[in-house]
Every structure is written in structure tokens, then in C-alpha cells.
Design a protein that fits this description.
Helices cover 51% and strands 13% of the residues. It is an alpha+beta fold and 185 residues long. It folds into two domains: 143 residues, Diaminopimelate Epimerase, Chain A, domain 1 (Roll), CATH 3.10.310; 39 residues.
Length: 185
Amino acid sequence: MERRLRGVLDAAAARGYPIKVVLLANDGDTGGDPGPLEDTQTYVGTVTDQLESVRPLQAPVLIVTPHGYGLGGQQPRGGKLTPITPALAAALERGLPLAKQADGTALARTAMVAVRRLAAAGGHPLPKRIPPARDNLNGILASQGGQTLGGLWLIAALAFGTLLVGALLVAVHRRVMSRDAAHSG
């Protein structure tokens, strides 16, 4: 199902409608916070603000939950980007089906229907048949375009932190061992 959803997202991007999709099945997907599931439209505002702080959004952001949708970001239409206001989001979401179950497969199916309708509403209709994306061991994150400089710094910082903690543990162990040897000798 992931490959089918990625295929729809790739087709939408190729037709000039790059859309970002988040699937939230339950509060386990939100770190235990029920808020994003209870008020998805408000939560999409938080997500789009965070994305905008990194770089300007050139696409809509769609959050799909078993209870409804959140839609924010920018809606490409006629070669222009239009901010998605709550009123526009409500108009675009009207009539979209809800997931039949709170699981990834049902949410992905619902997201594919929503992406097709939103792309058509933005003037970028998708073909009737879209092949699944090619299998990729990196999963859905493969479309992120590889490592960024920030990502490499994070990996380096984690590696350095791990080495530092390891060195501290060895030093503490040696100190305890030498103290025990001095007391028993």
C-alpha cells in the first residue's frame, strides 16, 4: 500500500501538484497526544508552520486521520500558489471519504482518493491508472531527496555523543576497579 500511495504522490508531483501527506491512525502516532486527532485542522497549522520555518512551502500538506482531515500550506492553481485558509480547506475537504478503519492501509487508501480530488481541484488531474512506486528499501522517506547538511551534522553529533558516553563509562569503570583493588589489597 505504501508503494501505491507513493506512486500517487509521485504522479501528483510530476503533474505540478507536489503534496505532502501525513497519516495518523491513533495517538500512538502522535506520541500519546490526542490533540492532532481531535482537531486535525488546527494541528496542520502547527505542521505547516514548522515546515515553513525550514523553507517556504510550495505545496499543500494533508493530514489524514480516521476522524477527518487537516489541510494547510499552499494550493497550486493556474501557475500561482494560494494559501490554504481554514475556509478553503473546508471547501476542499467537503465530500472526502473517511478511512473505514484506524490503520495504515485504510488511511493510505483514503489519502489516495483525497490526493486525486485535491489535485483535480487545483487544476492538476491525475491519470486514471497510476503504477505503484518502485520498491525502495528507504521507504517513503526516499522521496525526501537524500541527506541534508543538517542531517549529516545530526548524525555526526550523535556519533560523537555515543563515543563520549562510552569513554566516560570506561573511565568510571577503571576508577571503580582501581579503588576496589586498593581496598582489597
